[in-house]
Automatic annotation (TrEMBL):
Record-level GO cellular component terms: ribonucleoprotein complex; ribosome
Biased composition (Basic residues): 110-132
One Pfam assignment: Ribosomal_S24e
Keyword Transport in record: no
Name assigned to this protein: 30S small subunit ribosomal protein S24e
Domain of life from the UniProt record: Eukaryota
GO molecular function, one term: structural constituent of ribosome
Keywords per UniProt: Ribonucleoprotein, Ribosomal protein
Phylogenetic lineage: Eukaryota, Fungi, Dikarya, Basidiomycota, Agaricomycotina
Family: Belongs to the eukaryotic ribosomal protein eS24 family.
InterPro entries: eRP_eS24_sf, Ribosomal_eS24, Ribosomal_uL23/eL15/eS24_sf
Region called Disordered, residue ranges: 110-141
Amino acid sequence: MEVDGTMDPEGPITLRTTKFITNRLLNRRQFVLTVFHPTRANVSRSELGKKLASAYKTEAERVVVFGLKTKFGGGSSTGFGLIYDDEESQKKFEPKHRLVRSGLAEKVVRASRKLRKERKNRSKKVRGKAKTKAGEPAKKK
């Protein structure tokens, strides 16, 4: 299926979907997306999602576009697209980082990997109740 977007102020884009599969097990439609954008450097995922949603008559929130790679020399990009049937199945099957990106999940805030390892190793050096104090970062002098 081809979608033409000639009314864009930045320049025209054309979307072409290939290898279109209806995946009943995961409640989604999946496809390879080719975007032709001769006068633009690239196209945003949100804009592509809106165009695909209007083409396939669904909500823009259910459309997930990822893995976009711009061809050398510009003018076209390829990537993957998924259109989920409902929000429940999207939350169930979509990876956490893409749910955070689309605003359906909260990002888990943790200390950096190095800090977590340093804290763990400091707490190994003591026993008992002092372990909790050793887990805290060292005091600045």
